[in-house]
Structures are given as structure tokens and as C-alpha cells.
Amino acid sequence: MAAELSPIDKAKFVAAKRAVDFVQNGMRLGLGTGSTAAWMVRCLGERIKEEGLRVTGVPTSTRTAELARQVGVPIVSLDEAKWLDLTIDGADEFDPNLNLIKGGGAALLQEKIVATASDQMIVISDAGKEVAQLGAFPLPVEVIPFGWQTTKALIEETLVAMDVLNRDCSLRMNGDAPLVTDEANYIIDLHLNRIGNPRQLAMVLNQIPGVVENGLFIDICDIVIVGHGDGRVSVRDINSGEKAEERVEFAPSDNIFADLGD
Length: 262
Ligand code: 5RP
Known about the structure:
Helices cover about 30% and strands about 25% of the residues. It is α/β, with parallel strands linked by helices. The protein has two domains: about 1-130 and about 220-250, Rossmann fold (3-Layer(aba) Sandwich); about 140-215, ACT domain (Alpha-Beta Plaits, 2-Layer Sandwich), CATH 3.30.70. Strand 14 and strand 15 (about 230-235) form a beta hairpin. Helix 2 (about 35-50) runs parallel beside helix 3. It is globular. The structure holds ribulose-5-phosphate.
């Protein structure tokens, strides 16, 4: 079954599997959203089943909650958990300082709240998400539906004074209708190509009325694990400055690969 995976899925899988090694008994975990995070939830379910690992998960989307239930990861709300030991999530881009763009899967709001409420955040990724400078991936900004066109115009006006290459903004669609997030908001994608000062942009965007949150995660990620299709993983810890090159055994049970939805 594993042989049927594409190299990119193998890369995501090995990154996720290595990240789940960081999980210890009794931990309260933030469960990210997206195709890479879905591998992590599966791997976690496998450890719960095989080893009797005891953990509690806080999902960052309805999709992740559904998958967690399917694979036997107990979940609670963030208000029940209050504070988390570790969040494991994917990203759309990460830079050398481990600052991130997230929200390609429209879950940035819950993802940011959950990651911020965690002692530690591990990002799992394939090598394609590593960039010298953020911005090639459109930056998602979650806005309330009321007056969204005015909010978009204010964002565009604000971008004039920012260190960015382009300033095109587009409402994210789901077919013919605006995409609606789990928190019943819209997403405006900012096509900037290059973000010169991500910290400044993140702060300025959140000052605009109508903006709920932006997809820049600044100083939130502690460790990034990059997987490769041949089983190699690199583990980089921004706090200790350590970087390790490792290999993950690619011998998952068939169960891990059954009906992966995300
Ligand atoms: C969802 C996210 C995801 O983590 C991000 O889009 C990466 O997704 P994938 O692992 O499918 O590439 O931020 O809002």
C-alpha cells in the first residue's frame, strides 16, 4: 500500500511520523489541519492503538475533528483543555526564522489560537515549503463577511506602505460562492510575491477593522520537520539551533493508509 504513495505524500508521511515521536503519555495536543497534519493524526491514532498512548487532542477544524474521531484520537475543545503541551501542524511556507504562512486550508484562525496556546509548536512539511523569504504563497487573511469589500479595500490601501512586491487581493471562493470558514468568516488571499517584513505586516493587518486574523505565524513555531520521499527527515529546532538529519522507517501498517480523506 505504501508503494502507491506519491513521493510528496511519502515526504509528508515521514515528517508526520517523526513528529509524533515527540508525543508523550498524558500530553494535550493541538491537532493541525491539512494533508500533512492528516498524516500526523493517523500516526497518532496508530500509536494510541498499538501502544495504548494516552493523549487528548484539540482539533483546529471540523475536518481534523472528524478524522481524529475516525482513527481513535480522543478530542476535547480548547476551552476544556485550557492549555496545550504541543501542537503539530503543517504550513504553506516557512522561512529560515521558522516564521510561517498558514491558512491554505482556510483553518488559520483556529490554528493560530491553538498553536499560541501551546508550549511548543512543531511544523511538519515537505521540502517544497521551505523558502528564503515568505510571500510566494498567497497570504490568507480571515475577515468577517459584514462589509468584506470595504475591508478588502482597506487591506489594499494598507499594503501600499508595506514592503511587498505585489498587492493583488482576492476573495477565496468555493465554486460560485465565497468560501466560508469554520468560524463563518471569509478569506481574502493577498498575492504579495515577497514579504519584506512579515512581523510588521502581521501586526498592521490585524489593526484593520473587519480583519479577524492573518496567516502569518511569527515566533510561534519551535521545530520544523522536513520529510523527503526517500524517508529522510531533517529536524530543526529554532531555540537550540540544532539541526539533525535522520531517517524514518517506512513500514507503516496498512491501516494508516486506509481512506485518507484530506
Ligand atoms: C490549513 C493550513 C495547512 O497547514 C497548510 O495549508 C498546509 O496544508 P498541506 O499540509 O495540505 O499542504 O494552514 O489552514
